[in-house]
Amino acid sequence: MTASAITPELLARYDRPGPRYTSYPTVPEWSADFGGEQYRGALTEAAASPDIPLSLYVHIPFCPHRCAYCGCTTITAPSENLVSRYLADVTLEVEHAASLLGKRNTVSQCHWGGGTPTSLNAEQMGRLFGALTGRFTFDADAEVAIETNPNSVTRAQLDLLREFGFNRISFGVQDLNPEVQRAIGRNQTAERTEEMLRYCRGLGFSGINMDLIYGLPLQTMEPWMRTLEQVAAMRPDRIAIYSYAHLSSRFAHQQALDPLPRPGTTEKYALFAAARNHLVEAGYRPIGMDHFALPGDELARSLDNRTLHRNFMGYTVRQAPDQIGFGLSAISEVSNCYAQNTKDPDLYHSALERGDLPVERGMRLSRDDVIRRWAIRRLMCAFELDLVQATALFGINCNQYFSAECVLLEAYQAEGMIDLGPEYWRVTPLGAPFIRNICMVFDAYLKSSSKTLYSRTI
Ligand code: SF4
């Protein structure tokens, strides 16, 4: 893809509200009719396949203060009591799910996200990790990952995490320009970020990731490129570049950013395209939509082997069909059902105290949902649909099953964004930035949905 082929006119035409497709059907389609009881049924069903490993996610919502751009479920500056109660609640939730899962207790992937998981102290991290390993058996080669802030994590914490068996780590960097950092409420130098990266590498962490965000207030091309140069020079194994969604009507704390200039659609895309070009020139390989990896990294290898997968945490090399989420707002995907926990700490606590699962909403997927989820995931991971694979998996002929979609895809084909071949439907480099628009063609809910879409496709 050359940036010049992506014209402002094309961007303007395709920039529209659209889902990020971390799930299909997307969260707004889930309903409160699917609650703890239904989730209990899904976990019980999952117990029938004891040999299939699980993926675990734990949400640790605590942060010392709230960054102005934050869109996560967080609790800032929590009291010691609140943290203790939360850890006790998560332990109860783990016990509850594990007993329903019975002999299904092998784990191939575990991820601690937040919030800032390393805002827990050593004893608290030990308590939480013990709650998981007390009920689940981690595979010897399990991927055990944590998100952290390079500015606040300590060497002692990193030593401890390695001792527990954590082997993947992701640093929130966002932007190294001090002006942007001041605006968004972060403060981290390139030196400190690099020091922590090197320390992790020395400890044996692999797949070390850095997250960047484009579209933030005050971002302009020149300093953004300096951030890219600095980050690429550090050689993290992976770099993820996310688009900032400014939703100050939904997140009141983002109103602090309202008066500041933010890049518009064309500038935003230019920031992304420049970042992409820089990373490719620096030897990184684009993975899926917004991830980049060094050629020797597992993500790049699995792209070549066509074994790349995507779940709520992003791209992954491990396929664990069932993901069990613990903690506030955590999402589970089990037995073709989705379930999301409440975001309210008191409701979370009282549900668990009553012996209930703290699910706020969810859904059981129909066969059509499962087929469309497969199509959307393959497009997001591999930028193609293998029509032979669709027949093998679901007994369908894509040309017939997706005949209405084919008509819409022909317009994208005319634009040069997709090739509709007899065996593969392949997104072209020109179509790659518009992958979410292409996925929307397969979304059966969009036509009938009256739900607000918060993110935009570009
Ligand atoms: S560190 Fe992350 S989760 Fe915590 S406030 Fe900042 S953006 Fe939100």
Features:
single chain, 458 residues, alpha/beta, TIM Barrel, Arc Repressor Mutant, subunit A, 2 domains, nine-stranded mixed beta sheet, three-stranded antiparallel beta sheet, 16 helices, 21% strand, globular, binds iron/sulfur cluster
Structure description:
The chain is of the alpha/beta class and 458 residues long. The chain has two domains: 22-324, Aldolase class I (TIM Barrel), CATH 3.20.20; 366-443, Arc Repressor Mutant, subunit A (Orthogonal Bundle). Helices cover 39% and strands 21% of the residues. The protein is built from 16 helices and 19 strands. The two termini are 15 Å apart. Residues 63, 66-67, 70, 72, 74, 114-116, 149, 172 line the site of iron/sulfur cluster (SF4).
Unique ligands: iron/sulfur cluster
Beta strands, count: 19
Strand arrangement, largest sheet?
9-10-8-7-6-5-4-1-13
Q: How many helices? A: 16
Going by helix content, strand content and strand pairing, the class is alpha/beta
So, the CATH homologous superfamily of the largest domain?
Aldolase class I
Radius of gyration: 22 Å
The low-confidence parts are none
Largest sheet: 9 strands, mixed
| Distance linking N and C termini | 15 Å
Rounded mean pLDDT score = 93
Q: What's the CATH topology name of the largest domain? A: TIM Barrel
Helix content: 25-40%
The assigned CATH architecture of the largest domain is Alpha-Beta Barrel
Outline the secondary-structure elements.
Elements: H1 8-14, H2 36-46, E1 54-60, E2 62-63, E3 75-76, H3 80-101, E4 106-114, H4 122-135, E5 137-148, H5 155-164, E6 168-174, H6 178-184, H7 190-203, E7 206-214, H8 221-234, E8 238-243, H9 265-281, E9 285-287, E10 291-293, H10 298-304, E11 309-311, E12 314-316, E13 322-326, E14 331-334, E15 337-341, H11 345-353, E16 359-364, H12 367-382, E17 384-386, H13 387-394, H14 398-401, H15 403-414, E18 418-420, E19 424-427, H16 435-441
Parallel strand pairs: 1-4, 1-13, 2-3, 4-5, 5-6, 6-7, 7-8
Antiparallel strand pairs: 8-10, 9-10, 11-12, 14-15, 15-16, 17-19, 18-19
